[in-house]
Design a protein that fits this description.
The protein is of the alpha/beta class. It has one domain (5-212): Metal-dependent hydrolases (TIM Barrel, Alpha-Beta Barrel), CATH 3.20.20. Helix content is 36%, strand content 18%. Strands 1-2-3-4-5-6-7 form a seven-stranded parallel β-sheet. Helix 1 (23-32) links the parallel strand 1 (5-9) and strand 2 (37-44). The two termini are 17 Å apart.
Amino acid sequence: MNTQQDYHIHTNYNDHSDPDLTIENVLTQAKRKNLKSIAITEHVRKSSEWVYDYVEEIEHQRKYSDIKVVIGFEAKILLDGTIDCLENLARDFFIIASFHSIFANKKLWLNALKIAIDNKNVDVLGHLAPEKSFQLYDHEIEELGDLISKNNKIVELNAKYHRPPKKWVNILLKKNVRFHLGSDAHSLGEIGRFDCIMDLIQIIDKYNNNKLI
C-alpha cells in the first residue's frame, strides 16, 4: 500500500472539523508529511450551498502545490441506496459513499449498499463495516466482493474507524477488490496518519507479495 497517498481528507467547510483545517493548511500539512497525492473530500448534502466556493478554492490552492490534489466529496448513503449528493457533482467529482446513519436492519443496509455499489458515480466505499447490531456471513461478504469488483469500486482502508474488519479485507482481496488509504482527517494532525491501520495494510501487502512469488 502506498502510504504517500491519502484519499479522504476533510476541511473546515464542515461544522465539526478543526477551525484551522483550511484547504491551504491541508496542502501545507500534506507536503510536510511527504504525501504525493491526496483527495479532499468534504461532507456534502444535496442542500449544500458552499460546494462551488469549495471547488474554486481547491482549484486555486492546488496551482501552488506540487502534490496531486483530487477534488471530491463524501456523500451519505441513504435508506433507498441513493447518495445525498447532487447528480452533477457526483458525475463530475471524486465521490466517497459512506454510511452515516444507523439503519438497525441488515436487509435494508445490504440493499442500500448494493445500490450504492451499482451507482456509476460512486468511486469509493468509505469506512465500510457492518452495524453493531448485525454481522455478515462469509458468503454475504463474498457476494459484496463480487459486486464491488464487477463495478470497479475501491474500498477504503479508513484510519479514523479502523475499517473494514480484518475478515472483510481478507475475503475482499480474494475477490480482487482494490483498496486505498484514507485518514478521514478532521484535523491537521490526522492527515496521512496510518499507524493505527498498519495491521490492515500488512494484510494487503502480504497478499500482494505472495501473488508475485
